Amino acid sequence: MSRSILAAGLAGALILAAGSALAQHHGHHGRDGSAPPDSRELIRFPEPLVAHTLANMRDHLAALQEISEALAGGRTDQAAKIAEERLGMSSLPRHGAHDVAKFMPQGMRDAGTAMHRAASRFAIEAQNAGATGDLKPALGAFGQVLGTCVGCHAGYRLR
Ligand code: HEC
After folding, report:
1. pLDDT tens sequence across 78-119
2. Relative to the CA of 159, which ligand 1 atom is closest?
3. What's the gap between Cα 29 and its chain centre?
4. Which residues line ligand 1 (CB under 6 A)?
């Protein structure tokens, strides 16, 4: 395992840990069943960038659906390609990441980077699965990608 992949894995694990701590914090409902207090930090993006970001987010979710269907169908190369192009490091220019990054606090930027790295790591595991026939490491890496979505959503909101 290369050093950068190891580092990405560690960063992902840290984000996951932070995310699950936050998620637990948010998971409690009031005694009367009321919604839990919303302690996510409100981040102010210019309006066009809010719309752009939310559209990207919906594409992230669509990509996850396509990835899980590709995995279930044994199309591991396809799963890897979707992950790398739509969520991984290769997706950064496509997302206009440079435009939005300057409006993000550091923690949110780190959460975004963790997602891109986790997706690129998943892409490698999916390709490996094609060779080994063992899907488990790819499924684990897929879970880590989901964890980075959960982690950022637990901490930040745009509206
Ligand atoms: C760097 C932070 C961050 C990461 C990582 C992230 N999101 Fe989001 N996402 C947000 C924010 C902030 C919102 C807006 C939440 C709000 O204002 O209520 C959002 C909203 C969404 C929405 C709602 C879109 C809409 O039209 O309202 C979806 C769906 C979504 N994200 C999917 C994902 C998925 C899937 C992933 C992981 C593959 C992901 N996001 C990763 C920050 C992030």
Report:
1. 999 999 999 999 888 776 677 889 999 999 999 999 999 999
2. 17
3. 25
4. 54, 57-58, 60-61, 64, 87, 108, 111-112, 115, 145, 148-149, 152-153, 156-159
